[in-house]
Amino acid sequence: MEDHLHIRELINRLARLDAASAWAGDLNPTQRAVLGYLGRANRFSRSPSHVAEYLGTTRGTVSQSFKSLLQKGYVTEYRSAQDKRTISFELTSRGADIARQTGGLENSISELETDQIHGLQASLSAILKGLLRQNGGRAFGVCSSCIHFKTADVGGFCTLLSEPLSTEETSLICHEQRGV
Amino acid sequence: MEDHLHIRELINRLARLDAASAWAGDLNPTQRAVLGYLGRANRFSRSPSHVAEYLGTTRGTVSQSFKSLLQKGYVTEYRSAQDKRTISFELTSRGADIARQTGGLENSISELETDQIHGLQASLSAILKGLLRQNGGRAFGVCSSCIHFKTADVGGFCTLLSEPLSTEETSLICHEQRGV
DNA sequence: CCTAATAGTAGCGAGTCGAAACTATTGCAA
DNA sequence: TTGCAATAGTTTCGACTCGCTACTATTAGG
Question: Is the Cβ of B161 closer than 8 Å to some Cβ of chain A?
Answer without folding.
Answer: no
